[in-house]
Amino acid sequence: MRPFTSILGWSVSRYEKFDQCKRRYYYDYYAKYDRDIPLRKIAFLKSLTSTHLEIGHLTHDTIAALLHRLRKNTSPIDTEKVLHYSSSQVDRAMESKIFLEVYYNQQEKIDADDLKDRVGICLKNFFASRWYQWLIGEALPRRSSWVIEPKDYGEVRINGLKAYCKVDFLFPAIEGKFYILDWKTGKADHPRHRRQMMGYVLYARDIFNVAADEVRPVIVYLGEPYEEMENSFSESELDEFAGQIAKETQEMYRYCENIEENIPRPKSFFPKQARGLCAYCNYWELCES
């Protein structure tokens, strides 16, 4: 693990928030500096979940738990028990979390059965995939080398700049390649997800000191229809992407009063940028008030 530094780190999700709406970006990353709204209020709004997010969280958490179990114990997986476990996790989420759609009166309530069905579809597609069959067969002898949703933030250095590229699942294959699988439960967005895959290759290159052509990142879309997207990247493509990361990092730096300590400029420097996304924003009521 790298020593802590205060300076901000680039990530695909951080820059997307910055690009979409500066005010939302401020609330997500700099809430403690707000002098107008109590931190507890911003923290509460940030904690709101949504149906889309919960499907992703529940699917990821269930697959991660299954992979951890496989790494410790190679006895056959009872897929029906896994589906039952995911259903119980939906019930727990319904009891413990507040959904954005309900909080902002977009829906009267969340349909728990529908949520269970949609998570179940993703898990059934995972069980039917070539990756699951490979994991319970050929991959098992190398399970001690699996990297399953690392506990850290996936911090790397890209041309000296701090960045975060946290993988869902990384494992070495017998032929000497590294595979990175990223589970998606929403709609395919190939250009956006291709950027993510380049970040994963840079992560592997930095952490494991491997060449770009030794890394095979695959986006696995577990919803309907099931789909996979795999790309390979040349060193020149990755160098170009690293240059884009440097440019985007500099853009975010310009909103810092103190770059090294990641202290933001006043909130007034972070304008509201309504692009049809307000209905999906946790902080909607702060901008409407």
What is the average per-residue confidence, as pLDDT, rounded to a whole number?
A: 93
Helix share bin: 40-55%
- Name the overall outline: globular
Give the topology string: H per helix, E per strand: HHHHHHHHEEEEEHEEHEEH
What order do the strands of the largest sheet run in, or round the barrel if closed?
1-4-5-6-7
Total number of beta strands: 9
Poorly predicted ranges? none
**Intertermini distance:** 42 Å
Largest sheet features = 5 strands, mixed
- What is the beta-strand fraction? 5-15%
Round the Cα radius of gyration to an integer and report it: 20 Å
Structural class: alpha+beta
Total of DSSP H or I helical runs spanning 4+ residues = 11
Overall number of structural domains: 1
Quickly list its features.
single chain; 289 residues; alpha+beta; 5-stranded mixed sheet; 11 helices; 9 strands; 47% helix; globular
Could you give the topology of this structure?
Layout: H1 12-20, H2 22-30, H3 39-47, H4 51-72, H5 79-96, H6 100-103, H7 112-128, H8 130-135, E1 147-148, E2 155-158, E3 161-164, E4 169-172, E5 178-184, H9 190-208, E6 215-221, E7 227-230, H10 235-253, E8 256-258, E9 263-264, H11 284-288
Parallel strand pairs: 5-6
Antiparallel strand pairs: 1-4, 2-3, 4-5, 6-7, 8-9
Helix pairs in contact: 1-2, 4-5, 4-7, 5-7
